[in-house]
Design goal:
CATH architecture: Sandwich
Shape: globular
Number of domains: 1
Distance between the termini: 18 Å
Low-confidence stretches: 1-39, 44-48
Number of strands: 16
Order of helices and strands: HEEEEEEEEEEEEEEEE
CATH class: Mainly Beta
Largest sheet: 8 strands, antiparallel
CATH topology: Jelly Rolls
Mean pLDDT: 85
Structural class: mainly beta
């Protein structure tokens, strides 16, 4: 994989936004909250927020078997496959959510020490509330950050098919979730970056040029990283993950 970068303009955006303080928990944490009123971000050119991306610590291309270190939480073997889409991991997105401890096939592995970036390429077309597939950095079912492609059609609090960054602290949803609409195809690249207590979501359509979506802070002690799919209130649909990569950051 080529190093993935974002523009200096994105760095200025982060400085301008500052670190976010936890917000007021909402009563129904499964539903995304209102997106910010600022204009949606635009794609960036490949400049770097970081001086160097460091080294790849782990990569799984899902070629016939799962890499060493993965662990399923609430595994449902009938709803994941490495052969349905050869060279990829397909997880059929069912009901349930992480914070309720009732979603199946949460795929986790130990988190490396230090600052890291996790990345995946996923093909997923959510069409019903509240279908979600993406990346997660996880301490427990009460404390985690998940980012991904999702769908929500509730008036004034959702953006339909788009990108969402969900942060849970002590079991409650913390605002904002940086919801941004996206209808430019089924396949997207996702990055979740952890630097100390700061967590950042970036997305891309080509794996080269990245868009900064949002940044939040958390003082949780993350123990695991991985892939998440769930929150489905309709018929089961597939999320196809092409790879999972972990890179160290300075």
């Amino acid at each position: 994989m080529k190093p993935k970068y974002i523009t200096f303009a994105s760095a200025l955006l982060i400085l301008a936004c500052g670190l976010l303080s936890p917000g007021t928990p909402i009563p129904e944490p499964t539903k995304p909250i209102s997106p910010p009123t600022t204009p949606p971000p635009t794609p960036t050119s490949p400049s770097s927020l970081f001086s160097d991306l460091g080294t790849i610590l782990f990569r799984d291309d899902f070629d016939g078997s799962l890499g060493v270190g993965w662990e399923w939480t609430r595994e449902d073997p009938s709803n994941w496959s490495l052969t349905t889409a050869p060279g990829s991991l397909q997880i059929n997105v069912g009901p349930g959510q992480v914070n309720a401890e009732d979603n199946s096939n949460l795929l986790l592995r130990p988190i490396p020490s230090g600052n890291i970036q996790i990345e995946t390429k996923v093909t997923f077309k959510p069409v019903a509330n509240f279908q979600f597939a993406g990346l997660i950095i996880y301490e427990s079912s009460s404390n985690f950050v998940q980012v991904g492609r999702a769908f929500c059609d509730e008036v004034s609090i959702c953006v339909g098919d788009g990108f969402y960054m969900d942060y849970y602290e002590d079991g409650s949803f913390v605002a904002p979730n940086y919801a941004q609409p996206f209808t430019q195809g089924d396949t997207v690249y996702l990055q979740l970056i952890r630097r100390d207590e700061t967590y950042t979501l970036q997305t891309s359509t080509d794996g080269e040029n990245w868009t900064l979506r949002g940044t939040t802070t958390s003082n949780m002690n993350p123990l695991q990283i991985g892939l998440v799919a769930g929150q489905n209130t309709s018929s089961v649909i597939p999320a196809v993950f092409d790879y999972f990569e972990v890179t160290s950051l300075p």
